[in-house]
Amino acid sequence: MAKLVELKGDLGSVNSINITMINTGKQHNVIPETAEAYIDIRLSPKFRLKELEEKINDFTNVNGIKWKFMLKHDSSAISSTDPDNVYWSAIHQALTKR
Known about the structure:
The protein is α+β, with helices and mostly antiparallel strands. It is built from 2 helices and 2 strands; from the N terminus they run E-E-H-H. It has helices spanning 49-63, 86-96, and strands at 16-24, 35-42. It has a two-stranded antiparallel ribbon with strand order 1-2. The longest helix is centred in the middle third of the chain and has 15 residues, at 49-63. The protein is elongated, with a radius of gyration of 20 Å.
């Protein structure tokens, strides 16, 4: 099977942003007064949450958009890849079995 994506850098520096829900309008062909979007953002432990907030504020202040976190975790722990970690050990064994 061909490789679909060539990963560059390390996986610990990958962030993901997904729009999970958009609510707007009540009728076809009418410009809605408001719009609401829910966005799931998962940050790498290497990316500071404060930096994300600053970027969002820079964008929303210029465009008159109001926003808030529905759920926010201020820290991201990195799972241990030590062989004594039972979860890592189970994943490692499952992936290396033939």
